[in-house]
Amino acid sequence: MVRHSVADLGPDASMDQICEATGTSKTVLYRYFGDRAGLVDDMGKWAMKVITQQLDRAATPDMSPREALTHMITAFVDLASSRPHVYRFCDRGVTNQTGQQTFFDSIAQLLCARMNFTQPEQYMWARGALGFVRACTDEWLTNPTDPHTFATHLSTWLWKSAPATNDVEGKQS
């Protein structure tokens, strides 16, 4: 119910607005989530679960690293295009996370696992790729076109810089 309220109200929805939209008292909402940060954290976990499930459904034993990258980007873009307010709400919250394991650490680790990346430079690339996808998706959401075409463009651009294709100095491997 809370996720649907954020989808309707927008990413700047206050706890008061969410309570009113869900018909829930602030006491109940705060007891369940603790505070707004807890709500954002919970929604971030939900977003991570959605992305992971989409990847798991698409995964095959013989999936190439490029296919894994494309599926990851497609899952991210699908979430943003189908629920733009929820995406923005989660993105703002998880961007401000502190601590050892953030939402984007989890996604970068998942991407590395799916692409068979094990080196520190490859992890740095994965984190950078996430920043690229997020920035492009934010811009794309201002005037969205076909999500599949957009995700394909991102995948193509990123693949050209992937450590699986080029070593750290940029030489073909």
TrEMBL record:
What would you give as a GO molecular function for this chain, any one?
transcription cis-regulatory region binding
Top-level taxonomic group: Bacteria
Could you list this entry's UniProt keywords, alphabetically sorted: DNA-binding
Species whose genome carries this gene: Brevibacterium mcbrellneri ATCC 49030
Q: What is this protein called?
A: HTH tetR-type domain-containing protein
Q: Which Pfam families match?
A: TetR_N
Q: Where is the HTH tetR-type domain?
A: 12-42
Any coiled-coil regions, as ranges: none
InterPro entries linked: Homeodomain-like_sf (IPR009057), HTH-type_TetR-like_transc_reg (IPR050109), HTH_TetR (IPR001647), Tet_transcr_reg_TetR-rel_C_sf (IPR036271)
